[in-house]
Amino acid sequence: MIRFNSDYTEGCHPAILERLAETNFEQTPGYGEDVYCAAAAEKIRELCAAPDAAVHFLVGGTQTNVTVISAALRHYQGVITAASGHINIHETGALEACGHKCLAIETPDGKLTAEQVAAYVDAHYADESFEHMAQPKMVYLSNPTELGTIYKKEELAALYRVCKERDIYLFLDGARLGYGLASRENDMTFADIAALTDVFYIGGTKVGALFGEAVVITDEKLKQDFRYNIKQRGGMLAKGRLLGIQFLALFEENRYQEISAHAARLAEKLKDELIKMNVTFYIDSPTNQQFPVLPDAVLSKLSENYAFAYQARVDETRSAVRLCTCWATREEHVDALLGDIRRLLDTEEE
Amino acid sequence: MIRFNSDYTEGCHPAILERLAETNFEQTPGYGEDVYCAAAAEKIRELCAAPDAAVHFLVGGTQTNVTVISAALRHYQGVITAASGHINIHETGALEACGHKCLAIETPDGKLTAEQVAAYVDAHYADESFEHMAQPKMVYLSNPTELGTIYKKEELAALYRVCKERDIYLFLDGARLGYGLASRENDMTFADIAALTDVFYIGGTKVGALFGEAVVITDEKLKQDFRYNIKQRGGMLAKGRLLGIQFLALFEENRYQEISAHAARLAEKLKDELIKMNVTFYIDSPTNQQFPVLPDAVLSKLSENYAFAYQARVDETRSAVRLCTCWATREEHVDALLGDIRRLLDTEEE
Amino acid sequence: MIRFNSDYTEGCHPAILERLAETNFEQTPGYGEDVYCAAAAEKIRELCAAPDAAVHFLVGGTQTNVTVISAALRHYQGVITAASGHINIHETGALEACGHKCLAIETPDGKLTAEQVAAYVDAHYADESFEHMAQPKMVYLSNPTELGTIYKKEELAALYRVCKERDIYLFLDGARLGYGLASRENDMTFADIAALTDVFYIGGTKVGALFGEAVVITDEKLKQDFRYNIKQRGGMLAKGRLLGIQFLALFEENRYQEISAHAARLAEKLKDELIKMNVTFYIDSPTNQQFPVLPDAVLSKLSENYAFAYQARVDETRSAVRLCTCWATREEHVDALLGDIRRLLDTEEE
Amino acid sequence: MIRFNSDYTEGCHPAILERLAETNFEQTPGYGEDVYCAAAAEKIRELCAAPDAAVHFLVGGTQTNVTVISAALRHYQGVITAASGHINIHETGALEACGHKCLAIETPDGKLTAEQVAAYVDAHYADESFEHMAQPKMVYLSNPTELGTIYKKEELAALYRVCKERDIYLFLDGARLGYGLASRENDMTFADIAALTDVFYIGGTKVGALFGEAVVITDEKLKQDFRYNIKQRGGMLAKGRLLGIQFLALFEENRYQEISAHAARLAEKLKDELIKMNVTFYIDSPTNQQFPVLPDAVLSKLSENYAFAYQARVDETRSAVRLCTCWATREEHVDALLGDIRRLLDTEEE
User: Fold this and answer.
1) Whole-angstrom distance, CA of residue A308 vs CA of residue A285
2) B132 and D99: CB-CB below 8 Å?
3) On chain A, which terminus has fewer CB atoms closer than 10 Å, C or N?
4) Per residue in D21-49, pLDDT tens?
5) Is A174 helix (H, G, I), strand (E, B) or coil?
6) Which residue in D33, D56, D76, D128 has the most chain B C-beta atoms within 10 A of its own C-beta, making it the best mutation to test that interface?
7) Architecture of domain A14-255
8) CA B243 → CA B57, C24, D119, D198, distances in Å?
């Protein structure tokens, strides 16, 4: 079984295991107050050209989303999100369990626009019953989105401007940020993202780490007391150094960018070759998640040797699936998959 | 200023004030454990042909919704609702503040169908990531809905059957129940509603009481420990007898039904006469909330003498508004309104 | 049965019922945005010599406590309270259900001291693990306390000073405030309380109203968006005018003060006469709640004709009970009770 | 600097790093549905002689506590805990943030007794206002406690019996369970604990793992839908296999027990030698946390070379500190510490 069903099927980049082994018997303070976390935070501040940013390390994505959002909002406030946003669909109501409503907006591609956000917020305050509705106070974006799409710099800049004009926080979920920045269609840097958000995170779990997400806070109000929130939401790892060590290993020698580029290249190969086979896509994704539409019969055969994620039924005989590449994907596996799809499609046509 | 903007613009049926005055210096135990609450509960059980039902009295609608729903659900469970449902739109995220997600389904008319509910729940369990999504465990209906529409008996029966097959609670918000049952299009009784739900409430606030909602619980599991939930959600009125006295007054001499019929008749008059003037409607409502579409110029003139609620822009020159009748509406006010609309429309046409 | 078990056994001052009847068919906007609420708020601002205070009307005490506290705190913050505080004991964990911890301090008499608060907060920040503990951000006092005791002006001033020095809110629960201010031992006015707290409320439910609590906010930060919080916590009464009308009636012609004085006088009579009978007290209360210690045999006999609340076992043969007077207590009932206790004690001794 | 301040100062047992390296490029399903988690769960079921137990792996202690407790309780229920319990003191109100009250009972040694629990629950139901108080529905124990003390088998059996008689869950926090079972004063096995609780966990973070806690559920009701709760509380690790692999490594070749015994032996050495020096203790702990009382001057000197945790001031010149041994503690460090304390005490006396 070759797995393309997600980007967290393997362990981690070997450099991380090496660093963990080297440092294993060192004694450090707990809870992220060690030298490795300090060094990793500094490295990330440099990468983001954000010398005053606060950097915190958490374990997983759902935890990070609820910690950041609940730290920012008061009880009666909600967060604007694409209806397809991870927080709205795939976190078992974790944010609502912290007391906050997802203010969901339908989108064709998982991306919110500045116009949508402006219209939503302005409509809230224009309604005479505004106090009877959750107050929009934060915008949640994922980049790449759950559908693999990414924001252009001018799109993010417009969103940020709309948010600042309305005194609303802009939060970017970068669980797959590496793969977004490595896309051939991307025009942003870490520094751009730091400059055009109030808080965002750099995903480790899906980009070469065993686990871990690095939260970068540039807004002053959000920095205050953030560690209380981490502790309260269960994200303060006792051996916090494990996170610092991993992010140090990922960001030395340009490693994070290189392994992201590897995944991006293989995803692009997958996409380009499928297009040559006249395969269509559920959504036009420029990143490591690809959503081809294939005949059910082909998928059934493929599933004997490959794992992929079911996305949606497209018509009576065809479905969309999700195929992920990642830092650890082997090119021969991509080639084998492409060969098998080509063969099955050819057979199908006969 | 004549008010048609809501159905809670006046005080209460005079019989209620009389009973409050008569009983004012009696001493009773607090928190709903008095003889008036007991008698009112018994009266409601009879009305509903539900001799084993638990009946509790709460103060307001939002409070009742969160108390019932949070009493029924475990933390990871959510409630299916029409996207236009009161709990999803107009309660400032009160339910999310209790930790639960609204699982919203778009509808054209504010009414959920049995098919929608079945499809939603079945899709949940068919998804291999089902544990990553809030579990649907209750259906919330309002009858009449926020758009004035009502459920037919067979529609409610189908919803109830779908819920029972899937082990899901069915909860009906009857904040305007009197006006629904009094509609010329209604085919249900209190007993039907008690038989086809697990819990519902009979609205007092909008139907002749100063305030108060009577919760009727027929499901055994929901009955357990319900008073803890009332207290926790701030709904346990110290002088609980005020609720018992009010519901007793409303349900003696068929009063609740009669004042509901009064409002229904005036709403029907309003609707019928507007139709004669070729006025169209935002939604075809058979109850006390009517949503005519009128030229903005007409609305602007009308607003000098009448209060109504803005509903939605329909096109560049016309908007839908909400007009409510209620137990206290005076027929001469309806006639005056109709006359003024007729006159303004005529002027408009010239 | 004559009831001394609580101060909410009767309906309301007759002037309130008169005003409700007079205004019954007036049409007003809902949700507290009517002229009666505006006038009552203005009256309260004058009474409190707090021209810039925000005044809001809520229905009940638990609801008011959770609304005020959750409006003030961020998720990771808690509220310091006497262990005997209502929020810590008798609200079914309502505050915790909103996500906040009660930081309880043991007291002999239900009163927190400035020293206790200062020590608690200073110890929090002195602990190197402070981020692992809920952050103290508000102090909750009740005046009178649950044990009938009251704060002296200099005690409240010291508490307020300690709070301001540490950037902590001071909130005073005045569910029985009238009875506190009417005590012969009181040295404070409404204006003193407004000046020495950030937010407090004037109880109506226990002091002559059918229901209702008037929240007075003097702190600017707490004023912001407060109505969202009221709506979210279920406290925004549709017919909000009912609260305005009641508080107007209570505060015209010095009525609130006079009916409080009536209850105070009768409580003092009760206390003084019991002392003459050599009855001791569980706590030395100067307000309308009295806690005499009586032989169980006497209590058993008394309970045939009088309702009172069991407080605590004192020794093998004696218990403390709570006797409340209120605005509606009849002096002949107090005399009858005293007579019966005297007679039963005499019999007991023989 | 030699660290005795906690038991999470080093990385992990080398066997774990070896297993992580060996399996690093294997592809597995995510979220704990892999073969390693299955095998580790089976191993733990055997160890606990609990063939029907559900076993789940979470990341950290606070997360595990809130997940288990919030999975068990309904909104209006609370958890009985020693006032010194971790959930009550050191989790930043994480449980309250999930909506539940800690029902704290003072204890001299961090241990609850069956009598205390029975009295608490019985008093709840004996109070006529019971619905006004959070309902006790679970007992939380830690073993070892936060003060290093442990439960004897007969104590746990009595607690379990009291809980079962009252239909209350018994939950044991075993963050340091290995060190408890390895104590010379312990008389329990894993199987005893599984048989005498409804749910408990075996701590990995403090006993040789990088991170991880293994939850063992024997109660049928608690098993239901538990994974939804894990996901909602942020504890469902994407690369769940990391937990399975670690617990497999810990439980092969009796490793968990052996490394626990190592820590226990060194703690006992520390204790016995300090006693010989006439050092007294804040609490008589039989496990890996020792709380000696030492002169402040000695502590000040010691702190130049050793890290320890400040516990409490004992008198004007002496304080209690916490010294922890763990799986990784080196005997020469213990000897050095003992030598330095002896020398400093001798100097002190002169």
Assistant:
1) 16
2) no
3) C
4) 999 999 999 999 999 999 999 999 999 99
5) coil
6) D76
7) 3-Layer(aba) Sandwich (3.40)
8) 6, 18, 36, 42
**Gap between the Cα atoms of B150 and B183, Å rounded:** 9
pLDDT of residue D348: 81
Q: Which residues contact D173 (CB under 8 A, 6 or more apart)?
A: D61, D64, D65, D85, D86, D87, D140, D141, D142, D143, D200, D201
For residue A180 the two structure tokens come to 């977004």
Among C5, C101, C133, C233, most D C-beta atoms within 10 A, so best to mutate, is C101
Residue to test with chain D: of A8, A33, A102, most D Cβ within 10 A: A8
User: Which ipTM was obtained for this model?
Assistant: 0.96
Determine, for residues C131 and A74 on separate chains, whether the beta-carbon distance falls below 8 Å: no
CB-nearest to D66 from A93, A210, A234 is A234
Pair D220, B64: CB distance under 8 Å:
no
CATH, range D14-253: 3.40.640.10
Is the CB of C76 less than 8 angstroms away from the CB of A135? no
Side-chain half-sphere CA neighbours of C235 within 13 A: 28
Q: What is the C-alpha to C-alpha distance for residues D222 and D68, in angstroms, rounded to an integer?
A: 8
Kindly state whether A31 is in contact with chain D, defined as any CB-CB distance less than 8 angstroms: no
Q: What is the CATH number of domain A260-349?
A: 3.90.1150.10
Closest Cα in chain D, distance from residue A24 (Å):
5
Give me the sign of the Cα torsion angle A102, A105, A106, A112. Answer: negative
How far is the CA of D34 from the CAs of B136, D38, D57, D67, D106, in angstroms?
27, 6, 12, 21, 43
Class in CATH terms, D256-349? alpha beta
According to the model, what pLDDT value does residue B348 have?
81
Q: List C213's β-bridge partners, or say none.
A: C58, C203
Residue C289 and residue C149 in contact, taking contact as beta carbons nearer than 8 Å:
no
Both tokens assigned to C11:
């309906």
Encoded amino acid at D187, one letter: D
User: Measured between beta carbons, which residues in chain C are less than 8 angstroms from residue A231?
Assistant: 76, 131-132
Secondary structure (DSSP) of A79-125: EEEETT-HHHHSSTTHHHHTT--EEEE--SSS---HHHHHHHHHHHH
* Contact across the interface for A63 and D231, Cβ inside 8 Å: no
Residue D282: partners with Cβ closer than 8 Å, 6 or more residues away: D147, D291, D292, D293, D311, D312, D314, D320
pLDDT digits (tens, 9 = 90+) for D208-244: 999 999 999 999 999 999 999 999 999 999 999 999 9
D300 alpha-carbon distance from chain centroid: 29
Name residues 60-89 of chain D within 8 A of C (Cβ).
Answer: 75-76, 78, 89
The answer to whether residue C100 neighbours chain D at the CB level (below 8 Å) is yes
Over chain A (350 residues), the average pLDDT of each successive run of 10 is: 96 98 97 98 98 98 98 98 98 98 98 98 96 98 98 98 98 98 98 98 98 98 98 97 98 96 98 98 98 97 97 96 98 98 90
CATH number given to B14-254 = 3.40.640.10
User: CA-CA distance, B223 to B55, in Å (whole number)?
Assistant: 9
| Beta carbons of B133 and A90 less than 8 Å apart | yes
Tell me how far apart the alpha carbons of residues C66 and D99 are, in angstroms, rounded to a whole number.
Answer: 13
A260-349 matches A14-255 in CATH topology:
no
- What does the domain layout of chain B look like in residue ranges? 14-254, 256-349
User: Nearest CA of chain A to the CA of C231: how many Å?
Assistant: 6
Nearest CA distance, D229 vs chain A (angstrom): 8
Whether B135 sits inside 8 A of D228 (CB atoms) is yes
Cβ pair D314, D282 in contact under 8 A: yes
pTM: 0.97
Interface A:C, Cβ pairs < 8 A = 48
Quick one: pLDDT at residue D38? 98
Give chain C positions within 8 Å (CB) of A227. 131
Is A97–B93 a contact, with Cβ atoms under 8 angstroms apart? no
